[in-house]
Amino acid sequence: MKRRGLWVLLAAAAISVVAGCSNSGGNDGKLVIGIDDKFAPMGFRDDNNEIVGFDIDYAKAAAEKMGKEVTFQPIDWSAKESELNSGRIDMIWNGYTITDERKEKVLFTKPYLENSQVVVVLADSELAKLDDLAGKEIGLQSLSSAADALEASPLKAKLAGVSEFPDNVLALTDLKSKRLDGVVIDEVVAKYYMSKEQDTYKLLDESLAPEQYGIGIKKGNEALLTELQKALDELSSDGTAAEISTKWFGENKVLN
């Protein structure tokens, strides 16, 4: 019985060590960043199936400043905080909107980009403003800031229905097929698709809600947050952030 008890203790210790390694939070020189790989132009797959985007370049530059190796892990965006808190990823970094509700779950860096939630409709649609959506069918990405913005808007009560999708691409596909009348979506994402598919979409005149993007880190890991914020500040001061922004947006949109 004593030998068996010792074996149980040793096994438990081994499991504890493994669990600790899986939640290193960047202490081992590596960072695992959770992304939505269909969120262009922030993070998405190009024609060669490579993960690219503004947030991807921005994260790589920050990781270099920190002296860390970075890996991008596509995740179910509706489970992003669970992925972070379980230790499977070290950061949520892909157009992640700062909200009071999310602040209760994760630590945030300072905001680095301004955004807003807008409504995209087809270019030939007669819809022009938010009130025109009364009695219409709207789509959006589930458990996203678009869903939060719509939930907080009086517009929701006027709609005929709201369909939720795993990602924006599927929502826009239903819009093009005219199964939807509009899609609530991040402005930066909407403008990207409008530039790629000219004369396909237009934006309604009014936006639903302004917002800001930040990077989410597990609560309790203030050391990693401080280290990351220092790297981001350096990217702003040396002009690297502006270069990355100009590459993807044609101008410097990064907040100092």
Automatic annotation (TrEMBL):
Give the transmembrane ranges: none
Which positions make up the signal peptide?
1-19
Q: Which Pfam families match?
A: SBP_bac_3
Family annotation (Gene3D superfamilies): Periplasmic binding protein-like II
The Solute-binding protein family 3/N-terminal domain covers which part of the protein?
30-252
Ionotropic glutamate receptor C-terminal domain residues are: 30-251
- Put simply, this protein is called L-cystine-binding protein FliY
Native source species: Paenibacillus auburnensis
Gene transcribed to yield this protein = fliY_2
